[in-house]
Structure formats: structure tokens, C-alpha cells
TrEMBL record:
Pfam families: Chitin_bind_4
Signal peptide: 1-17
KW Signal (keyword) present: yes
Coiled coil location: none
Assigned GO CC terms: extracellular matrix; extracellular space
Keywords recorded for this protein, A-Z: Cuticle, Signal
Protein name: (apollo) hypothetical protein
Domain of life, source organism: Eukaryota
UniProt cross-references to InterPro entries, sorted A to Z: CHIT_BIND_RR_consensus (IPR031311), Insect_cuticle (IPR000618), Insect_Cuticle_Struc_Prot (IPR051217)
Keyword Signal: yes
PROSITE patterns (UniProt xref): CHIT_BIND_RR_1 (PS00233), CHIT_BIND_RR_2 (PS51155)
One GO MF term: structural constituent of cuticle
Length: 160
């Protein structure tokens, strides 16, 4: 009973939040198996998309240095990105993508020399020590052994 109440409360909360539509969805069925009709409505379709963006980061404190630029004109994308690796080598990737040739990239690597501010991150060495192993002696709980026999000796009883 409690589970039913909780499930109903969750459904009401989802319906009021807009996750579940308040009105039931009905599908027009076609064919023997009753598959729903697929109707795709795309309102904002751009048959020739165009954009251009770029960014650059150079943080002296952390040593992070990277950049990227990209342009798109229809189905043709051209761009490049670069990053300074921890060993002081700058990796630059120039790339193009289109529907005829696919994605192509050319990678260049060049040392930057002494004029690059590099930050060496040094972490304190971590030493691991195994926890001490204590071997305890086995504990034996022994009770006194009492041997009784039906032929045990008992002193005679005297009556006065």
C-alpha cells in the first residue's frame, strides 16, 4: 500500500514538473504490429551552417597553455588546436573535415625552448607501509576433565 502511494506521488510530481505530459500520447498505428507513425518536425534547420570561433589560454601559475580556432562553411570544417605538453613541446594539430574526404589531421610537434614558463608540479613522495601483522597465539579453552565411573569408590555410611 505504501509503495502504491509513493509511486502515485512520484507520477503526480513528474506530471506537474513537465517531465511526463499531462495528456496521454496516442499513436496512429499502421500495419499488423501496430508500429507508431514516425513524424519528425525540424523547425530550425539551416542547410548551410556557418560559424567561426577561437580561444586561447595561457596560465603562468599552472603552466596550462592551449588554443583552438575553427571555422565552418556548409559541410567544410577547418581548424587547428595547440597545447603545450608538460615536457615543453608544443603539439599543434591542423584539421579539415568535409563530406568528400572525411576527417584529416596533421600533427606538428616543436620544442619551445627556454622562453616558455614551465611549471613543474612536484608531489611529495608517497610511502606505503604495510600495517603490522600481529600473530596471536591460539587460545584453547579447556575445562577440567572429570572421569566418572559407575564403580567409583564411596566411603561406607555408618549409622549410630
Amino acid at each position: 500500500m505504501a509503495v502504491t502511494i509513493i509511486v502515485m506521488a512520484c507520477l503526480v510530481a513528474a506530471a506537474t514538473a513537465g517531465v511526463v505530459p499531462a495528456t496521454p500520447i496516442t499513436y496512429a498505428t499502421t500495419g499488423y504490429h501496430g508500429a507508431p507513425d514516425a513524424k519528425v518536425v525540424v523547425e530550425d534547420y539551416n542547410d548551410h551552417p556557418q560559424y567561426s570561433f577561437s580561444y586561447k589560454v595561457h596560465d603562468v601559475v599552472t603552466g596550462d597553455s592551449k588554443s583552438q580556432q575553427e571555422t565552418r562553411d556548409g559541410d567544410i570544417v577547418q581548424g587547428s588546436y595547440s597545447v603545450v605538453e608538460p615536457d615543453g613541446i608544443q603539439r599543434t594539430v591542423d584539421y579539415t573535415a568535409d563530406s568528400h574526404n572525411g576527417f584529416n589531421a596533421v600533427v606538428h610537434r616543436e620544442p619551445l625552448g627556454a622562453n616558455v614558463a614551465s611549471v613543474t608540479k612536484v608531489a611529495a613522495p608517497i610511502s606505503y607501509a604495510a600495517a603490522p601483522v600481529v600473530h596471536a597465539s591460539p587460545v584453547f579453552h579447556t575445562a577440567p576433565v572429570v572421569h566418572t565411573s559407575p564403580f567409583a569408590y564411596s566411603p561406607p555410611i555408618y549409622h549410630h
